RNA sequence: GGUGCCAUCGCCAAGUGGUAAGGCCGCAGCCUGCAAAGCUGCUAUUCCCCAGUUCAAAUCUGGGUGGCACCUCCA
């Protein structure tokens, strides 16, 4: 496999530290609000990566954290007069439900900040002991960036230039403007934990480094994890800071490979609350099938910026529809799974830094070949067996085509309408049998009024929601 | 100001030295009572512009132009 390593800015052959095993850590959500399309993109990208790694035969341990200690959470709890835990529980479960709708598999480990405090204390203490962190008079603990010769090696920035544009007020207690909080002392009792460093709460960057040590790292390894991923915006300062903490507190570097996914824009504009154009996943899922969103969001290479718009989504859906139509043609058939050349080619395409476009082109070729073959007379027994295996492989590795094909085309239609449609189709069939085409066409128009199109096949008349 | 990314058919989008994948849309045909679906064929001598390297460049180099991201919590 090949992976583009955003630390080195080049595509590299992927070689895990332990043969056959991969550790993957991805920065997950801060659970203070509904997930938007950007969260979906990131989760989908690393879901795909995990599936592809597993298809390559790797035993993958995938961890994605839940940040449940954060100023934004506290603010929200205050505003809504709720407990912190009510907020975090609510948004954690909605996140899980929405990701499930997209076909995102749950990570193997999902550590929470609130459950990782001991690991964080341990890391802070190590950093203090090694002279990489200092305590201020007001009780905060900061990471001393000047003590880390490798600082900024990940993002390759220039500190003086960062400072020129630094829009954040720098605390006067910090030794260097880039120093970041490991521990924030809190006196108002809002959300405080009792630590060896006093009452307070941990800085945001710390949790990932601590969780990685706790759950994934082996102390003698050169790297704490094989792959560390997240959104492109996290490269700096979040990942830079994580890398610094781990490098200074332990005897290994944080990650052998870094992967960053591109952003999701809406109609050419950055999603942001101030622009009022955040597209929440829960709203998108009211309009579109989760798998359609999965297919659309994964349809563009993970490192590209993604511009979400409904026209492109509709075009993308038509491509997925074709996969489902071919599944309809093979529906009900079963057989032993066999390995095929197609599967090898698909895996090769995806193994090249998740080249989804190449993979989709192969799938389109496959669909075309299946339709072409099924259009010719014959039983095609062996061909069908291979076709079924290939479709099953696509389901497993890409998560495309996982639904019952008939239900896929009829999702969102209520039972009463379905019954009515069945009735109309029956009437139309009778009219057709009587060669009363004026009547059958009139009924078809009635059916069309439901937003449904029909198709006559040798097996009968079927309908699809348009 | 710094760091970095991008520019390929009407639209989406691969391709990073060997002579332009794939999808949507469109056009023609087959099939169909007619449709829909499916199938077949057609649809970029050309990859933002200029110059250079090379037997060979969308792909490399230099210079432009135009987008964009990060440097603040952020996927």
Keywords:
four-stranded parallel sheet, alpha/beta, 46% helix, 466 residues, elongated, five-stranded antiparallel sheet, 3 domains, RNA-binding
Report on the architecture of this protein.
- By secondary structure, this protein is of the alpha/beta class.
- The protein folds into three domains: 2-266, Rossmann fold, CATH 3.40.50; 310-407, Anticodon-binding domain of a subclass of class I aminoacyl-tRNA synthetases (Four Helix Bundle (Hemerythrin (Met), subunit A), Up-down Bundle); 412-465, no CATH class.
- 46% of the residues lie in helices and 17% in strands.
- The chain has helices at residues 37-55, 71-80, 84-101, 117-129, 159-164, 204-215, 235-249, 281-287, 290-298, 310-329, 341-351, 356-374, 381-398, 405-409, 415-433, 437-448, and strands at residues 2-5, 10-13, 21-26, 59-64, 133-135, 141-143, 180-185, 193-195, 198-202, 223-231, 253-261, 264-266, 269-270, 306-308, 452-457, 460-465.
- It has a five-stranded antiparallel sheet. It has a four-stranded parallel sheet with strand order 4-3-10-11.
- The chain starts with a strand and ends with a strand.
- The relative contact order is 0.11.
- The mean pLDDT is 93.
- It binds one RNA strand of 75 nucleotides through helix 1, helix 5, helix 7, helix 10 and helix 12.
């Amino acid at each position: 496999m090949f992976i583009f390593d955003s630390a080195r800015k080049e595509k590299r052959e992927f070689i895990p530290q332990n043969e056959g095993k991969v550790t993957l850590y991805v920065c997950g959500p801060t659970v203070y609000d509904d997930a938007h399309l950007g969260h979906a993109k990131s989760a989908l990208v690393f879901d795909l990566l995990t599936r592809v790694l597993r298809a390559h035969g790797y035993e993958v341990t995938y961890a994605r954290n839940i940040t449940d200690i954060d100023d934004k959470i506290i603010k929200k709890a205050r505003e809504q007069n709720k407990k912190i835990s009510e907020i975090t529980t609510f948004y954690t479960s909605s996140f899980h439900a929405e990701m499930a709708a997209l076909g995102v598999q749950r990570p193997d480990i999902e550590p929470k900040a609130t459950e990782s405090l001991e690991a964080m204390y341990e890391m802070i203490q190590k950093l203090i002991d090694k002279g990489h962190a200092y305590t201020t008079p007001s009780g905060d603990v900061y990471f001393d960036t000047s003590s880390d010769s490798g600082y900024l090696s990940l993002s390759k920035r220039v500190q003086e230039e960062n400072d020129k544009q630094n829009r954040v007020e720098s605390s006067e207690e910090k030794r260097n403007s880039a120093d970041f909080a490991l521990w924030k002392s809190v006196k108002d009792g809002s959300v405080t934990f009792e630590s060896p460093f006093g009452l307070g709460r941990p800085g945001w960057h710390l949790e990932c480094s601590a969780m990685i040590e706790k759950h994934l790292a082996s102390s003698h390894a050169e790297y704490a994890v094989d792959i560390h991923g997240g959104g492109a915006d996290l490269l700096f300062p979040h990942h830079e800071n994580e890398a610094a903490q781990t490098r200074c507190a332990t005897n290994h570097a944080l990650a052998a490979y870094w992967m960053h996914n591109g952003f999701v824009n809406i109609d050419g504009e950055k999603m942001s609350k101030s622009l009022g154009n955040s597209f929440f996943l829960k709203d998108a899922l009211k309009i579109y099938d989760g798998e359609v969103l999965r297919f659309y969001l994964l349809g563009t290479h993970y490192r590209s910026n993604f511009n979400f718009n409904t026209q492109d989504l509709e075009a993308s859906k038509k491509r997925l529809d074709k996969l489902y139509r071919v599944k309809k043609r093979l529906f009900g058939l079963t057989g032993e799974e066999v390995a095929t050349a197609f599967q090898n080619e698909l895996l090769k395409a995806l193994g090249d830094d998740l080249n989804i476009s190449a993979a989709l082109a192969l799938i389109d070729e496959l669909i075309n070949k299946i339709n072409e073959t099924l259009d010719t007379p014959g039983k095609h027994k062996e061909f069908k067996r291979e076709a079924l295996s290939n479709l099953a492989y696509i389901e497993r590795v890409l998560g495309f085509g996982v639904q019952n094909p008939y239900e896929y085309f009829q999702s969102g239609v209520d039972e009463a309408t379905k019954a009515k449609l069945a009735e109309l189709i029956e009437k139309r069939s009778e009219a057709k049998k009587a060669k009363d085409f004026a009547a059958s066409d009139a009924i078809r128009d009635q059916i069309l009024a439901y937003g449904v199109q029909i198709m006559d096949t040798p097996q009968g008349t079927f309908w699809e929601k348009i």
